[in-house]
Amino acid sequence: MDQQTTNTVEEPLDLIRLSLDERIYVKMRNDRELRGRLHAYDQHLNMILGDVEETVTTIEIDEETYEEIYKSTKRNIPMLFVRGDGVVLVAPPLRVG
Amino acid sequence: MLFYSFFKSLVGKDVVVELKNDLSCHTGKRRVDMDSCCRIAICGTLHSVDQYLNIKLTDISVTDPEKYPHMLSVKNCFIRGSVVRYVQLPADEVDTQLLQDAARKEALQQKQ
């Protein structure tokens, strides 16, 4: 029986498979970011993330000085299904410094 | 079909569906207050789901900003799968080990 049971990394989705049960960083549309533990995904990049922190970044423009003020809002969600069409990037969590 | 099966296993549980249509572009001097931004999240009991991940919820209530009085009388709703951004799930109803194994199988199936 010709069955592909390879565990080698061949295509980009295989890279995501390596991250199952690991914490990942997900960049989404509308200036949103998620950090959580990957429990499931599919070819559409629908995902189930556990212990998630969502960061929404907004830019306020001061009417007088016209300066751009970056504001970010975070919230925590214990278990989250994410629809794949909002996903832009999937990566290991970013380590700052 | 992974997530279709997954949601079928959650029928009867309470979930919060967050929609995509919260196009909130906050500019100007006003301070962004997330509590009053137009984020539409619907809390309800999962009644059914289909292969497109369309969702039927019963006994719904609009969470967060109750700025949408036109939903006050609505008890049940059908949500097109494509407008869903997130579905918040009860963590203790989710078997993470099972999910991870299923995701690995699904990934393998996709490659064939």
From TrEMBL, chain A:
For this protein, the record's Gene3D superfamilies field holds: 2.30.30.100
Compartments where found: Nucleus
Q: What is its main location?
A: nucleus
Keywords noted in UniProt: mRNA processing, mRNA splicing, Nucleus, Ribonucleoprotein, RNA-binding, Spliceosome
CDD domains documented for this protein: LSm3 (cd01730)
Highest taxon listed in the record's lineage: Eukaryota
Q: Which GO terms describe its biological process?
A: mRNA splicing, via spliceosome
Report the residue ranges that make up the Sm domain in this protein: 11-96
Record's InterPro entries?
Lsm3 (IPR034105), LSM_dom_sf (IPR010920), Sm (IPR047575), Sm-like_LSM3 (IPR040002), Sm_dom_euk/arc (IPR001163)
Gene Ontology molecular function: RNA binding
**Which Gene Ontology CC terms are recorded?**
Lsm2-8 complex; spliceosomal complex; U4/U6 x U5 tri-snRNP complex; U6 snRNP
One Pfam family in the UniProt entry? LSM
Known role: Plays a role in pre-mRNA splicing as component of the U4/U6-U5 tri-snRNP complex that is involved in spliceosome assembly, and as component of the precatalytic spliceosome (spliceosome B complex). The heptameric LSM2-8 complex binds specifically to the 3'-terminal U-tract of U6 snRNA.
SUBUNIT field: LSm subunits form a heteromer with a doughnut shape. Component of the precatalytic spliceosome (spliceosome B complex). Component of the U4/U6-U5 tri-snRNP complex, a building block of the precatalytic spliceosome (spliceosome B complex). The U4/U6-U5 tri-snRNP complex is composed of the U4, U6 and U5 snRNAs and at least PRPF3, PRPF4, PRPF6, PRPF8, PRPF31, SNRNP200, TXNL4A, SNRNP40, SNRPB, SNRPD1, SNRPD2, SNRPD3, SNRPE, SNRPF, SNRPG, DDX23, CD2BP2, PPIH, SNU13, EFTUD2, SART1 and USP39, plus LSM2, LSM3, LSM4, LSM5, LSM6, LSM7 and LSM8.
Recorded family membership: Belongs to the snRNP Sm proteins family.
* Annotated protein name in UniProt: U6 snRNA-associated Sm-like protein LSm3
Organism annotation: Equus caballus
Automatic annotation (TrEMBL), chain B:
Q: Where does it live in the cell?
A: Nucleus
MF terms from GO for this chain are:
RNA binding; small GTPase binding
Cross-referenced SUPFAM superfamilies: Sm-like ribonucleoproteins (SSF50182)
One term under GO cellular component: precatalytic spliceosome
One GO biological-process annotation of the entry reads: spliceosomal tri-snRNP complex assembly
Q: Which Gene3D superfamilies match?
A: 2.30.30.100
Ranges of residues in domain Sm:
2-93
Per the record, the coiled-coil ranges are: none
Please provide the record's keywords in A-Z order. Answer: mRNA processing, mRNA splicing, Nucleus, Ribonucleoprotein, RNA-binding, Spliceosome
User: What is the purpose of this protein?
Assistant: Binds specifically to the 3'-terminal U-tract of U6 snRNA.
- Tell me the protein family, please: Belongs to the snRNP Sm proteins family.
Q: Can you say what this protein is called?
A: U6 snRNA-associated Sm-like protein LSm2
Q: Which organism is it from?
A: Equus caballus
Q: What does the organism's lineage look like at the top?
A: Eukaryota, Metazoa, Chordata, Craniata, Vertebrata
